[in-house]
Amino acid sequence: MAPTVPRSTAADVGSLPSSPGPTQVGRLGVAGSTRHPPPIPAWSRPMHTTEHRPASLPNRADPSGDARPTPGDDPAATRRQLPPGASHWSRTYYDDQGMQQVAKVSVPVTGQGRIAANEWECPTCGPQSRRWMSATLATAPFCDLHDMEMRKLKPGRNPSVGVTPPWKDIVRAVDHRIRVGAAIAAAGTAGLTVDVVDMPWWGHAAQIAAIPAAISGSWWLTRVWLIREAVRLNNLDPDDEVAGRRERRNIAKRARIAAYCAAAGMSWIEIADLLNIASHPARGVSLIAGLIAAGVIASRPYLNWVDRRRRAKPTPAVAAATAMPDEPPAETPTDDEQLAAYVTGRWNERISAERGPLPGTYLEAIRRTYGGWSAVVVATDESDLDPERFETDKTIGKIARAYGVGVTMVTVTADPLDANRAMILVQRTSPLSEARAWDGTGIDLTTGKAYTASVDDGDRAQHPFWRPGWGAVMELLAGATGSGKSEYLNLLLALERQSGVCVSWVCDPQMGQSLGDIRDGVDWFAPTVEEFLIMLRVAVQVMLARNVLITRMRVKETRPSGEVVERRVKYVEVSADFPLLDITCDEAHIPMNDPDHGKEIVALLALLAKSGRKCNIKVRLITQSPLLTELKNSVLRSQLSSGFVAVFRTADKLTGAACWPGKMPGDPALLPAEWPNGNTAAGVCYMSGQKPLRHRSDYVGDVYDLMHSGETKGLEPAVLGAAGVLYADRHKRLAAFDAMDPAELLGTQIPTLDRPAGQGDPAGGKGGGREAVLEFFADRWNSGDVDPIKFGVIDENVKAVKTRALTNVLNKLVQEQVLANETGPDGKSGWYRLTESGAEHLGVDEVGL
720-728 and 730-739 are packed helices; what angle lies between their axes, rounded to 10 degrees? Predict the structure, then answer.
């Protein structure tokens, strides 16, 4: 008995068909069966609660999105699937000896250029049995149909060589048309025969009598046959005269057509006999041409019916009972394999193709994440790809369209250590869709950080309050109304009270309405602009006092020589004896734009932001728009941006870019206001110094007990003298404020935030070309002039900017949607106007309207 030869299976080698074929060989299943592609992963199916256009698949007959090769190598490659382990198709490859070879057609290769799979063929089945098998296959696969070894083909062999034309399929496709031609030819032959044969008178009489018999017989036979077929196919119930009327009408129509064809054929035979076409060739040619034309026209209804039946005929399913008893069932691809096939297929077709946004790239390390998948994008040596293209808005938009997700659900981060690689995260559902409640975990006093937010990949993010050995971290929180920034502020203030090492001073020009119980748990609360100004003046005195105290501090140290010396102290760590003083201002644009005290408030904030770090004094501003027209000082904004920045959902993309340190990981204007399930998306944001992904802040919940238990942390005794009576009487002033009648408090003066016409930069002078241009357009808007203005007029009025620099400034503002470039009355472009979005950020929208 011959020894048993191990046979490779599809699961062992991950074989894929190189071209569509009627049979499957190797251990791919039952002979004659068709390999069905894996279904689309569940995460990639469109959600029924959202409205978006589902991504089109690379082949509607193959919903798995199997990979397609990059076009450009060879037309045959576009009809083959990329085998597992291969990164792309190429005509050049390296053999086992490391020599470069050139194939006639493209072959699957790895990223290193080596053959990834070999093509095998059954000698008996022929080319239609060709399959790609892994190059590491140790034994030859077997053909299940003939139980014989398959042969390995030479790499790059033209797949069209040796292909036998499918004559049976060709004949089967045109057999009904052949029947029509045969019927026409038979009628013509019969007419010629009748004309040539010399028949007696009764023969001619029989011909004439046969015409009605042929007509009625064709009608009756056709009708009987069609009814029998309709009953067999359950399209007609012979016992029900009411149902199936449409089918009966179709049968009657086809029977009449058959009768017409019989009448035409028999009439032609009689005409041929009467005209004696055998003796008159010209007359015969004309009559035969008429017969052919009549036959073609009369056969159209029949052929149309045949074509409709073929199109409607379903593909028969292979019965499971036909499987061989000793044949093991084909292994179903795992979920991870289905995901990898779908992701790779879409990437090769839409992203890494020659005209895609990232040509010459491939994915590796594909893994499933919460609601989506992540992978590593690798650029091949042949791609010559600019690393900056990984993170462009165009690339992210193309990827989002390829996988049918929103732009904010795609994150691409370039590898800082390798310019050829980038990390990608694509999600259809996000872990941020469910809000996470604060679990009570406080600030880690050794690091100065606390866990305050969840990340899109399921990780957790920490908020820095201070850095050990460095000092306080300045903060800037920005976002539109209802984006969740005030709720995040409540969480930060709750953490500060819980820590026991933080002193919280808070200003809310809206009188603490959004703070709730938090207001009762802070050391100093300022409900008005005037009280906030007093707070800042005291904070500067505290900062100077701490400067003096720190410079006087000494610490003993033993030198290498053994001498004990006293060294000066440069920084004191945050502790209960030297607490962190946190000055927070919600709705910061209100006091900073105050017509009476705004300039001094901005100057004091800038001073504290620049010099307070080493004294453990931090500044935290919360605003809807961090533009200079709101913050009023570029130095203040840069100091805050260098610390910690959290940008929540904004009205447009200009707001986030204005305060973010560097390039933002996404557009905050595209952050959702609510999730597809109807839950609010408040708290979703981007945080600097963290992963370049979306975050969502924790929900602080009920903090009444925390804010009303124990003593509130205040300043250390060493600086109370410098803080003075203004600090000591803070609670008295707040109690008096709360006791005042609203009419007495507000008086008759109507507060206004309108920007005075002609007002320059509060910090003094022009704030640069950008500020000068914004100043010019704001003044025009305030005066009621909102029409477009020509570039030359802008150049004449904005003297602080040179013409060339002015062009760059205007183009940048147009990109940020602050200005619009339109065609003027002269029919030329170069006319600029302030947009409504730009007016809103400048604080002049109501004036212009």
Answer: 20
Q: Render 353-392 in DSSP notation, one character per residue.
A: STTSSSTTEEEEEEEEETTEEEEEEEE-TTT---GGGGG-
At position 350, the amino acid (one-letter code) is R
**The one-letter amino acid at 545:** A
The mean pLDDT value for 159-177 works out to 59
What is the Cα–Cα distance from 26 to 35, expressed in whole angstroms? 12
Instruction: For residue 141, report the phi and psi dihedrals to the nearest 5 degrees.
Output: -75, 160
The rounded radius of gyration (Å) of the Cα atoms in the chain is 42
CA–CA separation, 494 and 517 (whole Å):
10
Strands (E), 575-627: 580-585, 617-623
Output the six-digit token pair for 69.
């090769």
Confidence of residue 484 (pLDDT cuts 50, 70, 90): confident
How many angstroms separate the CA atoms of 84 and 123, rounded? 25
What are the residues whose beta carbons fall under 8 Å from the beta carbon of 828, sequence distance 6 or more?
A: none
Query: How far apart are the C-alpha atoms of 210 and 217, rounded to whole Å?
Result: 10
Average pLDDT over residues 626-637: 61
Q: Compute the distance between CA of residue 414 and CA of residue 422 in angstroms, rounded to an integer.
A: 4
Cα angle at 693 between 689 and 698, to 5 degrees?
80
Question: Helix-strand-coil percent breakdown of the chain, rounded to 5?
Answer: 40, 20, 40
The pLDDT value given to residue 29:
35
Q: Predicted confidence band at 138 (pLDDT cuts at 50, 70, 90)?
A: confident
Q: Could you give phi then psi for residue 644, rounded to 5 degrees?
A: -120, 130
CB atoms under 10 Å from CB of 118, counted, come to 20
The separation between CA 799 and the C-alpha centre of its own chain, rounded to angstroms, equals 45
**Residue 195, pLDDT above cutoff 70:** no
What lies within 8 Å, CB to CB, of 493 at 6+ separation is 504, 506, 515, 518, 521, 522, 584
Model confidence band, residue 549 (pLDDT cutoffs 50, 70, 90): very high
Q: How far apart are CA 716 and CA 724, in angstroms?
A: 13
Phi, psi (5° rounding) for residue 694? Answer: -70, 145
Contact between 649 and 479 under an 8 Å Cβ cutoff? The reply is yes
DSSP designation for 802: -
pLDDT given at position 457? 80
Of 801 and 338, the structure prediction assigns the larger pLDDT to: 338
Residue 841 and residue 629 in contact, taking contact as beta carbons nearer than 8 Å:
yes
Which pLDDT belongs to residue 275? 62
CA atoms within 13 A on the CB side of 196: 9
**pLDDT value at position 145?**
75
CA torsion, ordered 562, 565, 570, 575, to nearest 10 deg = 90
Cα–Cα dist 132/115, whole Å: 11
Which position has the token pair 């409640």? 437
pLDDT digits (tens, 9 = 90+) for 732-781: 888 888 888 776 666 544 444 344 433 433 333 334 578 888 888 888 88
Strand runs labelled E in 286-440:
361-369, 372-379, 410-414, 421-427
Residue 431: Cβ within 10 Å count? 18
Closest CA to 686 of 644, 739, 626: 644
Q: Report which of residues 192 and 26 the model is more confident about.
A: 192
Q: What letter would DSSP give residue 500?
A: S
Distance CA 154, CA 118 (A): 8
Q: What is the SS3 assignment for 78?
A: helix
Which of the pair, 269 or 765, is modelled with greater confidence? 269
What's the Cα-to-Cα distance from 444 to each of 76, 261, 465, 499, 501, rounded to whole Å? 62, 95, 10, 9, 11
SS3 28: coil
Q: How many whole angstroms separate alpha carbon 680 and alpha carbon 55? A: 26
With a CB cutoff of 8 Å and minimum separation 6, the contacts of 533 are 591, 597, 600, 601, 604
Is pLDDT at 194 greater than 80 in this prediction?
Answer: no
Q: Both tokens of residue 580? A: 């962190």
Six token digits for residue 519: 């207001």
Structure tokens at 270: 């009689």
